[in-house]
Amino acid sequence: MYNIKISPKLKSDDRSIMNQILKEEAFFLNQKQGDIHSFVLDDDQDQLLNKLLNVHKMTNIDKENYTKHISYCVRNLGQKSIDKLPMIMEKYKNEDERFQIMFIEQLNLIYEASLQAQQPVIQILSFFLLNSILKIKELAGQQLTKIALHLQGDEKGNQLLPIIIKMAHDDLNQDNRIVALQLMGKLSSMFGIQLSESFIAFEVMSLGEDSKQDVRKEAVNQLPLVAKVVGKDFFNKKLFPFYMKRCKETNTKVKTACVEHFLQIVELSSQNQKIADLTAQILQFQNDSNKYVKGVAYRCLARFIAAIEKDKIEPRLIENYLKMADSDIRELLPEQQVMFACAYGFPAVLQTVGVARWQQLHKLFNHLWKQKNERICKTLAASLHEVAKIIGAEKAEIDLFPILETIFVKEPNDNVLMGCVKNLSQFLKIFSDEKKEAFLEIFFFIQRDLKKWRIRESIANQLDEMALIFPAEIIFRMILPIAFKLCTDNVAQVRKIASSKIYAFFQGIKDSPLSEQYQTFIIESMIGFQKSSVFYQRQSFIQMCSKIMQFEDAIFQQHLLKPLLELAQDKVQSVRYMLYMAIENHFKIQGKQQGNPQLLEVFNQLSNDKIIKSLVKYKPTLEVQVNETESKEQENLQPSSEVINQEPQLEEIDDDEIPQRQVQEEPEILKQLRQEKQEFIKKQEEIQKEQLEKESDAKLNEQVSQITINENAEKNEFNDETTQIAYDSSDQNIKNNESQELYQFEQLQGQGEQQQKENDGLQQNEEYEQGSQNDQKEINTEEDASQL
């Protein structure tokens, strides 16, 4: 992140004062040591303009900072920089590559700064588009694409198209032609159908005949983007024949580009073109000598078959599709891309060829399933409901039930199981009530694992669908227990989804002769959530009512309104807040209970709740007076224009009104243990200090005694040697002996002081180690006390 400080635009005197304050007090919030990306703009306008005009003379660090933030500098300078902008841009034409890249990245921001800056920006981009470095060309092209979004009408063609055509006609530079093709593809949708048919499409086709293979390849890459813009007739007469001609090339790069964009051309082609031309072409690609081209052609096969009418499919296409699981075909591309494409397009191919081919395709389905690849098996499991719809209940029971048994019982895999469970309710629709009831055991089985909450979430999402496909007796006996159990799940997301689906069961039981008994059971179960001592179950009750008040308003008013309003006095603030949000959302969507006076009264009461005010950051005032007549109620429900135009006010709460956390007082036993621990530490420190002093004194005495012994021995030797010396020199010898003794005494004193320093350092180290041990003992003592 960049820390940018821009001086305010004030008068000259005030500006100098602000600059001085910035110099003294500005600091970088996120700056690290050696960070050169922090930038402070505290120069006046003349100094800043002078720096930009002399950016080539700066150090590399300053040049990088000013270049990365040149758009901010231009905005700060205003008209002064706009007048000098061509001169500033001229400095970057001869800069190093890294500074040119930084400068180009800022050009779109400079373009947006002023209308007068637009023409210089386009001119400098046209210069960089002709640069010899491909990276700079492509970056300049990206900036030109961003700028094109701001151009209106003919400006795009008048300002950008000449630059692109000039690059496309550069016969000496291959990179210029490639970048021109990239710009044509990206900007074709902005140029519109007229310019695309008049210029862009012909330039692409012309460069598609280029002598360089990379240019021809890029022309094929950009062809689908241009083909989406031009008219249908132009595509059929010009671009489609051009594509077919490129497919006949022997060059591997061009052929690879053709097969990679094959499906995009299929989407734009007519049925006759698919049958007459593209069918033969994909068969030719599948027999190509290049392994990659052959593999991509097989990867496109399933989607191509699905795009052709049933009666006009070439039999060889079906034969090749059935061979996609063979070892020589599936290994053409890495990571089993061919097998995955076969599994992904299996329902579409089955839908196209019909049930008559099921026996052949069933073998392929089993072969794909036996690969035990998680990605492939998950795709097949997620498409089981579509396959079952196509082949019917009888064949699905015979051929697909073993797959389900493998998924749920024999070899369960969480990802594969998730893919199957997500659409299980759709799968059950086609079967009889007996089979559906048997499948409900699966729901009992898979929702027991508390760790797999994603699967429970997927089951909760399908509760409303299951409420409509099962008979009322099965709903009452088997599905409702699952639903209410999910409403008490330990994961909040599962509870929320399951609670929002309870309303659907009222619709599922209404045609049953026992609908009143079933309805009573559901209502009593819901009220049990309202009376629960667990707060999140009361929240689940509110989530249930939020949907029921909209879809089953009669049941809500008669049985659930009073229990819901009682939660306005709940002790838990999150419950009251959820009730407030439920009523507010119901009023926003203009639900069926928006005129209920009791709801309005509770809503106004909760609006004044101090806790809710602290949770709701911005709360518009809603004051509705309830009158006896229904006409006045409806009028009061419509907010006046004055209330609508009022800005939301921020509700303020005093700090004293916010509940504070209470800190418990420290236990007495912990205080006693801490005092005993401190006394013990002091005693240990005194004992260690006495021992260290005794040891140091003993060592010092030994050194002194040894030095004294050495001195006596030296004196005896010296006396023996000097017995023959004359008496007149005796005085001089005595003086020498005294000076020698003084020197030895000073040396002994220095050794003692050094030894004392070493002892003091040793004592400090031992005290530090003892302090660390004492800290650990303190932690252990506190833990023992807390356990006690």
TrEMBL record:
InterPro entries linked: HEAT_type_2, PP2A_Regulatory_Subunit_A
Compositionally biased region (Low complexity): 740-754
Gene Ontology molecular function terms on file: protein phosphatase regulator activity
GO CC aspect terms: cytoplasm
Biased composition (Polar residues): 636-648, 728-739, 761-774
Region annotation (Disordered) ranges: 627-648, 728-788
Coiled coil: 670-702
HEAT repeats: 160-199, 200-238
Keywords linked to the UniProt accession: Coiled coil, Repeat
Protein name, per record: Uncharacterized protein
Species this chain originates from: Paramecium octaurelia
